[in-house]
Amino acid sequence: MSSFELLPGAPASPVLLHVPHSARAIPHDVRRGIVLDDAALERELDHITDAHTAELAERAADLATVTPWRFVNRLSRLVVDPERFPDEREEMTAVGMGAVYTRTTHRSELRPADTDPEPLLARYFRPYAQAMGEAVAGRLAATGRAVVIDVHSYPTEPLPYELHGTGPRPPVCLGTDSFHTPEGLTEAARKAFAGVGETRLDSPFAGTYVPLEFYGTDARVTALMVEIRRDTYMAEPGGPAGPGLDRLATALAAVVDTA
Questions:
Q1: DSSP states of 30-50 as a string?
Q2: What is the CA 96 to chain-centroid distance, rounded?
Q3: Is the full-model pTM beyond 0.90?
């Protein structure tokens, strides 16, 4: 099983829709290292998966005037979380949810605390990071710039693992970075998602993903995280998508078109 897929867009598009948390697949050998029984694992996947975000990105790509590129994680974030720091910089390590999770969304045991993360980092995390960096470099080489739009969702009610779960939980949260997120991109997203409901910056989740080789050094790489509250488009947790997905796809396509 391939752990990720780069889906080509138009050669002239600088936009890369990044979908890191939409999948539920876990390879059998990785499953053996998870202590949850099958029913508990399915419940955890319901809570932790950004369900239907790959479909959202696909629909938005089809609607966009110039087709963006898409980089999609095909494995669950319970295998590795490609957006975490793999070292002491990662604050989520405090709740057992660094690059390789040892705790669940409800802070129960997922893997033994002494699990060595290195085999999973070597097999999945580093190849993903390298491929994502190459995808960004490809947009820079082709167009002179790259725009990473990180597509996520989050639950209506905070889960116990959240370190900053007490802030507002609007229909759309826009995660920003002081170096990589220009004001024009933020304002374009605010305007595009106005029909969905209120948008807020960096609440309840802050920041956005930029491959480390570009982070804080290459202003040609801009980025925005789009976090959609799940009740706007699906039944929680882990239920089917509803008609709200079409409205969100139209809004996301508008962001792509103005990026």
A1: HHTT--S-HHHHHHHHHHHS-
A2: 19
A3: yes
Q: Which residues pair with 227 in a beta bridge?
A: 152, 173
Residue 112: Cβ-neighbour burial (10 angstroms; 0-12, 13-18, 19+): exposed
Given a contact cutoff of 8 angstroms between Cβ atoms, the answer to whether 46 and 159 are in contact is no
Strands (E), the chain: 4-7, 15-19, 69-73, 146-154, 172-175, 199-201, 221-229
d(CA 106, CA 44): 9
* From 63-67, 159-163, 217-221, the region with the lowest mean pLDDT: 159-163
For strands 15-19 and 69-73, give the pairing: parallel
Residue-wise pLDDT for 27-59, tens only, equals 999 999 999 999 999 999 999 999 999 999 999
Domains and CATH numbers, the chain: 4-83+115-258 (3.40.630.40)
> Three-state SS for 175?
strand
Cα–Cα distances (Å) from 182 to 66, 192, 232, in that order, read 21, 16, 26
